[in-house]
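Lay summary. Proteins are chains of building blocks that fold into shapes, and those shapes determine what they do. In this project we predict the shape from the chain. Here is one chain we studied, written as its sequence of building blocks.
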Amino acid sequence: GLLSRLQTCAPTVQTLSSSKSFSQNIPSCLWKLGRLNHVAIAVPDLEKAQSLYKDVLGAQVSETVALPEHGVYTVFVELGNTKLELLHPLGEKSPIASFLQKNKTGGMHHICIEVDDIKAAMTELKKKKIRILSEEPKIGAHGKPVIFLHPKDCHGVLVELEQA
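And here is the predicted shape, written in a compact code that computers can read:
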């Protein structure tokens, strides 16, 4: 149940009282969640979106990269503490094409969070009944292994985990 999930994957909790402090050690995960790597935005017009971030907002914007194995073109917008990933469909079976059919003007597609051990994360998440959208990690836009977690198991958000 929920309690056993919390006990197997929760950080150490420290409680402060007026007289003393003590910590309750709870076993930690075999893997750790890291920083937010990027927020991905599906866009119907990639050149227009690049221009917004580069020419209007003054951000540093990467060149367009095709990722046929994921069915997308990607462009990264550098921010001070993270990145935006602009996604545009590549090919008819692109998951971004179906997203844009439902969201004509585009919108947030997923968030990407780094993990220190993607294989351990997969094993533990499967035990906790979190659906992973592929049997094995695929190589993502940064050349590192990635997996996606089912949005229905993540409060409506498609979550990408990337090996740090």
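What the prediction tells us: Helices lie at 2-8, 46-56, 95-102, 118-127.
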